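A quick word before the example. In earlier lectures we treated sequence and structure as two separate objects. From today on, think of them as two lines of the same record. Here is Sulphur transport domain-containing protein written that way.
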Amino acid sequence: MKVNSLFKNEWHWSVAGVTAGAAVLMAMMAGKNLAVAGAFVAVVRKIVNVFNPEYLENTVFIGTVRGTDTWAVAMLGGILIGSFAASRVSHTFQIHGVAQMWGNRFGKSIWKRIAVVFAGGLLLGIGANVGGGCTTGAFLTGVSTLSIGSIITSLSFFTAAIITANCLYFNKGKEIGEQIPYQQD
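And the structure line, produced from the sequence above:
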């Protein structure tokens, strides 16, 4: 693989896998876990603390969530800035009100899309807090350390994702495949 190909479209799975593994290793060596849900909670805690610090002391839901270090906020910022920079460098940056696949299946209503994304994000946030972590923490950190709970959780996520995708987009693969052909390197 040429170095120039790193800046064109998506990374090859092997490069992305080694990079993700290196990130997990560095975090573990620093005594941290890669967990995006904790970063979002850290941002919310910092904002709430500015306006109403007593609320955090009296609220169990936000007040006792793990992963509220400042490094997690920096990681979240790095993810946002890094993904934007990568999309700009690879010339793949696009702004869509409604993704084509969603529009083909459910219509072009931006408000419907926003409502579904908000509801899904809210459910994921609640699930991450109730379950003690997010998919990033379970997949990257938990599975790489051979945590039985994370392996079971990851299998559950994959199973639920496959069922959900089939329920939402059943029999749409041929149509989508024609619009966006898959190219293997």
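Notice the following. Residues 3-179 form one domain. We will return to this example when we discuss secondary structure assignment.
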